[in-house]
Amino acid sequence: LVRDSFPEGTEVADPRAGTVLWVRMPDRVGAMQLHQLALQRGISLTAGPMFSAAGGFGNYVRLNGALPFTERIREAVGVIGVLATGLAEGMPRHALLDWMEIRHGP
Predict the structure, then answer these.
(1) Is residue 74 within 8 Å of 1, Cβ to Cβ?
(2) Backbone conformation region of residue 66, classed left if phi is above 0, alpha if psi is from -120 to 50, else beta
(3) Residue 4 CB: number of other CB atoms within 10 A?
(4) What DSSP line would sit under the chain, residue for residue?
(5) From CA 2, how far away is CA 80, in angstroms rounded?
């Protein structure tokens, strides 16, 4: 699902164990900005810089896989992917939020 929803160049970690999935997006996608946009849509994700004292992992996000995979989670991952794609394409934040509201509702 992540590979289908996120921008071209996104890489997904292949975890051997655990309940989180690390996603590396193209360098032009800021994880903190994606985190804030997702929160405005009611979706929680963790931005990579939150795990670095030096502010590294600026284009990484961590998705929680501890909950059962439901339709709601599937939709949330899709929305995150659309937001990330908009950021990758250079869409301004306000335009991206307006576009998301038109496409997916408030």
Answers:
(1) yes
(2) alpha
(3) 8
(4) -HHHHSPTT-EE---SSSSEEEEEPPTTS-HHHHHHHHHHTT---EEGGGG-TT---TTEEEEE--S---HHHHHHHHHHHHHHHHHHTT--HHHHHHHHHHHH--
(5) 9
Q: Which residues lie closer than 8 Å to 15 by C-beta, 6 or more apart? A: 21, 22
pTM: 0.88
**How many other CB atoms are found less than 10 A from the CB of residue 106?**
7
pLDDT digits (tens, 9 = 90+) for 30-48: 999 999 999 999 999 999 9
Residue 23, pLDDT above cutoff 80: yes
Say if CB 83 and CB 40 are below 8 A apart.
no
Alpha-carbon gap, residue 49 to 31, rounded angstroms: 8
Q: Which two tokens stand for residue 71?
A: 């339709």
What's the distance, CA 86 to chain centroid?
Answer: 11
